[in-house]
Amino acid sequence: MAQSTRPSVFTPDDEPYLGRELLHHFDKIIPTVLEQNQITAGHTHGIDLTDHQRMACIVIPQAISLALSIRELIRQGYLFGAHVLIRPLMERAVVLLYLRAVPSDIAKWNRGWHTRDDAPSLSKMLEAIQKAGNRSEFARGADLTATLNSLLHGKPDSALWNTIALDDDRPGYASSKILDQPELCDEVCANTLPWLVVTMAMMAAYFPDAELLDPGVQPAPRSGRG
C-alpha cells in the first residue's frame, strides 16, 4: 500500500477522512463543548464547590482532552491509537454518570479510587447506572466493555483494528498511519460522539446554575479546528 505521495503531517484541509459524515458531526460538536466548558469553568471559580463538583472539575476536562486527542489522531491517520483512547474517554464519562447514580461513592473517589479497594470496574459502573435508572432491558457490563478492553490490553481480537492490506494484497498490521479505511474512521467517531455528548450533559448536571448554551446557536468561531 504505497503512501509515499501523501503528506507526513495532515492539516484540516487535506486530512485523509475529510468529508465523512460522522467526522463532520464530531467537528460540529467540538466548538460547542469547548465553549460550554469555558463558561462552566468560569462559573466554578466563583462558587464553593461540593465534593461532586470538585470531581467533575477534574474529570470533565480530562474527557474533553481525550476527545480532542482522538480527533487529532483521526486527522493524522492514526486510527488504531484513536480507537484505544475511546476506553479512557468512556471511563471518565461513566464515572460522571456513576457518581450521579451512586452519589455516596464520592467518598471512595476522594480516597483515591484505588482499583483493588474502592473503585468499581467500568463494567460494574455501567451495570449500576442501568440499575439506578430502572432500565427494562439490562446489558451485562462485561459485554459492553469487551471490545474496548481488548484494544486497551492487546488481546488477540484487537488485531481487527490495525489490519491493513499490504502492497501484494496480503494482510498486515499497521504500525503507523491508516489512510484508506473510512469504515474504521466511522467506527471511531460513532464510539466517541456519544461519550462526548454525555460529558457535555454532565456539565449541566453537576453545575445546574451555570449558563447553558442554546443548542440551536452555533458558538463563535475559534482558531483552528478540533
Secondary-structure topology with pairs:
Layout: H1 21-44, H2 51-75, H3 79-101, H4 106-110, H5 122-132, H6 141-153, E1 163-165, E2 171-173, H7 182-206
Antiparallel strand pairs: 1-2
The helix/strand order is HHHHHHEEH
**Radius of gyration of CA atoms, rounded to a whole number:** 19 Å
Q: Helical amount among residues, as a percent range?
A: 55-70%
Global geometry: globular
Please report the number of helical segments.
7
How many strand units?
Answer: 2
Largest sheet: 2 strands, antiparallel
How many structural units, i.e. domains? 1
Structural class: mainly alpha
Uncertain parts: 221-226
What report would you give on this structure?
The protein has 226 residues and is an all-alpha fold. It has one domain. Helices cover 56% and strands 3% of the residues. It has seven helices and two strands. A two-stranded antiparallel ribbon has the order 1-2. A hairpin with a 5-residue loop joins strand 1 and strand 2. Helix 2 (51-75) packs antiparallel against helix 7 and helix 3 (79-101) crosses helix 5. The radius of gyration is 19 Å and the shape is globular. The relative contact order is 0.20.
